[in-house]
Amino acid sequence: xxxxxxxxxxxxxxxxxxxxxxxxxxxxxxxxxxxxxxxxxxxxxxxxxxxxxxxxxxxxxxxxxxxxxxxxxxxxxxxxxxxxxxxxxxxxxxxxxxxxxxxxxxxxxxxxxxxxxxxxxxxxxxxxxxxxxxxxxxxxxxxxxxxxxxxxxxxxxxxxxxxxxxxxxxxxxxxxxxxxxxxxxxxxxxxxxxxxxxxxxxxxxxxxxxxxxxxxxxxxxxxxxxxxxxxxxxxxxxxxxxxxxxxxxxxxxxxxxxxxxxxxxxxxxxxxxxxxxxxxxxxxxxxxxxxxxxxxxxxxxxxxxxxxxxxxxxxxxxxxxxxxxxxxxxxxxxxxxxxxxxxxxxxxxxxxxxxxxxxxxxxxxxxxxxxxxxxxxxxxxxxxxxxxxxxxxxxxxx
Length: 398
Ligand SMILES: *Cc1c(COP(=O)(O)O)cnc(C)c1O
Hints:
41% of the residues lie in helices and 14% in strands. It has a 7-stranded mixed sheet, sandwiched between helices. Strands 9-10-14 form a 3-stranded antiparallel sheet. The protein is an alpha/beta fold. The structure holds pyridoxal-5'-phosphate (PLP). The site of pyridoxal-5'-phosphate has 14 residues, from helix 3.
């Protein structure tokens, strides 16, 4: 198998696994308590990971809150801002419709609890329309949430421009930076956001752990915790810390940062090679990802084939079409639909997410299988069309 689904999750790096092991077996203490060596050892592991994650974001240790993943970090950033928004009367929120489901879900709940969300228009590749942002802005806007990189098509936003604009209006900025982290260089100050979400398992760390960066100064961002009880994580996230996962996150973050420049180059080269092979062999690809987007992302729709048949025939290549699968029923991609791609074409879409585990020969082999499957399906569609006088599933001539 060739794993090309790196936007969904990534394989744990061996050095991350090695670093985690002792924290399961020997250093199993409670990192939020003192009094004996077991707890101190666990605490030291968490402290070190906090330094590593903070360094990767150019932040201070105190600005990092460990959570159970990016979903929780997004909820803490958004729902945790709710009391401040309601108290200050700045109840309007600006966001875009192609955000990750965990952001959209939190925003929906905030609307039920007294806020109003206005959606900033985007261009066909998902970039924020700044004229529209300016039109929507007002003294009653308390929060803007826009992902640094889109999880389906890899669009990168000019977040610094959004943050500078928001700051002039006394409005806080949250960004879901899960897909950008470890793929493009940025720091908390270079993007200017007040709240930044990241996740370990998208950078070869373990699942079930993430972090929220919370700005402490200029301005200091006040949040309310989602859960109550303990004083852990500056009272923002009570509960006994998952020491092995946090330690693994620290190592993964450090290593992502250390190799960022060379990884970016290599990923971009593999992505460009894959596109060259596919587009050279076959016509009828629609490239949904912008050329200046994430270096590891290639989102392609295939004309003239049925999406279900396409995914049913892939044997070697593990790839996603980014649609949600709920209760066994495959939906279609919300992001592509929002950007104007028809539903049938959205189903026949490959969301390719490359990673540091991929090799050049995997890229060649993946292209061979993808080309073969699309050729076969188009041939079958053509024969079917000739026999019945109808055209193919996604409305195009095969
Ligand atoms: C994967 C992902 C999430 C969810 O992360 P978890 O750690 O699995 O909760 C949130 N946002 C984006 C953009 C993602 O890609």
